[in-house]
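REVIEWER CHECKLIST
Item 1: Sequence provided? yes
Item 2: Single chain? yes
Item 3: Sequence as submitted:
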Amino acid sequence: MSVELYDTLSRSVQKLAPASGDTLRFYCCGPTVYGPAHIGNFRTFLIQDTLRRVLEVDGTPVKHVRNITDLDDKTIRRSQEEGKSLVEFTAHWTDKFHADCDALNMLPPSIEPSAVAHIPQQIALVEKLIEKGHAYATDDGSVYFRVGSFEDYGRLSRLKQRELKTQNENSAGELNDADEYDRESVTDFALWKSRKPEDGANYWTSPWGEGRPGWHLECSAMVDSAFDGETIDLHGGGIDLCFPHHENE
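Item 4: Structure as written out by the authors:
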């Protein structure tokens, strides 16, 4: 049986098969555990669960990796609002997510990495990007990806540089206050965020100072770790993640 899927990058239907070997390498952006997953979230996960079952019934082994995002602005803010540590807060909602998955009779992923458990890998990835000229550190200890160094940026979301830039401007063409960082370009995005008072105890030591990883970096590092640096065959996630998250990964 041949399985075909609509591919967002090529905007065409493509045959799904492992690029090398017998096992299909499948990564799915999982939940951000700051509250209960809703029906829209589970639509994504159920479709992916069904796809995996179809492939395995057809005789194609699947290495299914679905991450847990337990470190971002939302998880930090909500944990502080409830007066709990980040670990305690996210563990509760991770358990609730797993219970909902069980209730829906979903298969557990082959590997379920979490962002907090992969801080060293994320720091190492940032160092590699800086060495290759794709990233740079700023005076405040943050690190940004140099979008201009990657000529295919915007290809997935079909956004051109001007359209990308406009998303960071107000009606007068000026930078929004929230985007007034020491960046080379308004389109550059954070790989490492320098420590801020509102982060509380949620920071880690890095070569650039105390801080925490950016959201997009987390998935990139977890993919690299889970698949031992091999190229994945399929990346899944909600359509709302196409830009900026999947583009920035």
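Item 5: Key structural point noted by reviewer: The two ends are 32 Å apart (CA to CA).
Item 6: Recommendation: ____
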